[in-house]
Automatic annotation (TrEMBL):
Coiled-coil blocks: none
Residue span, WYL domain: 122-205
Native source species: Prevotella amnii DNF00058
PROSITE patterns: WYL
Residue span(s) of domain WCX: 240-314
Leader sequence residues: none
Protein name: Transcriptional regulator
Length: 320
């Protein structure tokens, strides 16, 4: 499939998604002005349009239907399904921006991106290993580690957090070590060890000839249950966090929640109070501290005390 064809599929899908319902004539008027047409002012032939619809259903599993009773307007069937699929929505949004930049070179230098190391160069190898269930051999240097280490991993899932890519993998080495230790202690011999690796900390990677079978018992939703970000520590229980935020910052938290469990439980003329059910891990405290003096943890007392400890330590640095 040619890259320019993919761009046209995404344009058509995104256009109907934004406009809700469009006739074929309305779609063509928007297409001619898009800068992606086949020639200067060329419209989409009807046959090509239907071919694009078919390709969109095959690639994205999204169906563009026609409502004969509403002036033959085209619409996305079950748009809530597309909206709830974060991966497809992210891919479509990203390619839509790329379409606009390619269509209008005047915008090329006016769109600024945050330069964050992501490790995206390893994605192809990881996805191939996931698809073929092959073991990866990686050289990895964790944050704060003076030297790198090389070892095997069995890649299960990819995760994006704050534009950084991570691979969640079963560690054969630590799993086997746990099994030996547990067997000696008379415990559970099937104690598999799963770890999250930041792709920007990977120094080298190779696909091996070894195969693995993904554990059917592994549940990704359960693994990250109550987690704010990348730290999945089951030893830290899920807590009910009550967070009060003052205006106007509370509107930002309302539009971009800290966690999917966040909901409003009270509000007045000056503030909004939110409730979250999360594990108060270090990365969650980092997110709370990022709210500066515009938010306060009301409950539980243990989290309040930990926030107090962080802020006292910060104050000590600035007293020097």
């Amino acid at each position: 499939m040619a890259a320019n064809n993919l761009g046209r599929y995404v344009w058509l899908l995104d256009t109907i998604r934004r406009h809700k319902r469009l006739t074929f004539e309305e779609i063509n008027r928007l297409w001619v002005c898009s800068g992606l047409s086949y020639g200067e002012g060329d419209e989409i032939p009807l046959r090509t349009f239907h071919n694009h619809r078919k390709a969109i259903s095959d690639i994205f599993d999204v169906y563009i239907e026609c409502d004969n009773k509403d002036g033959y307007r085209y619409y996305i069937d079950a748009p809530e399904k597309l909206k709830s699929d974060s991966l497809r929505s992210w891919l479509i949004d990203s390619y839509s921006v790329l379409n606009q930049v390619q269509a209008d070179k005047k915008l090329e230098g006016r769109i600024l991106f945050e330069d964050i190391p992501s490790g995206h160069e390893w994605l192809t190898n990881i996805m191939q290993a996931m698809r073929e269930e092959k073991v990866l051999y990686i050289t990895y240097q964790g944050f704060g580690k003076p030297i790198e280490n090389s070892f095997e991993i069995e890649p299960y899932y990819l995760k994006v957090i704050n534009r950084r890519w991570y691979v969640l993998a079963r560690s054969p080495y630590y799993s086997e070590r746990n099994q030996r230790q547990n067997k000696e202690d008379g415990g559970n011999p099937l104690a598999d060890d799963y770890r999250l690796y930041a792709l920007d900390r990977v120094l080298d990677m190779a696909l091996t000839d070894k195969h693995f079978k993904m554990k059917k018992s592994f549940d990704i939703e359960e693994y990250f249950e109550g987690c704010y970000g990348i730290i999945a520590n089951k030893n830290i229980p899920i807590e009910r966090i009550v967070l009060k935020a003052w205006k106007p910052h509370c509107y930002y938290l309302e539009s971009l929640p800290l966690h999917h469990s966040q909901r409003i439980i009270a509000q007045d003329d000056e503030s909004i109070t939110f409730e979250l059910n999360v594990r108060p891990t270090f990365d969650f405290y980092q997110a709370l501290l990022a709210q500066t003096d515009m938010a306060e943890v009301l409950e539980p007392e243990s989290v309040r005390q930990e926030m107090k400890r962080f802020t006292e330590n910060m104050l000590y640095h600035y007293k020097k």
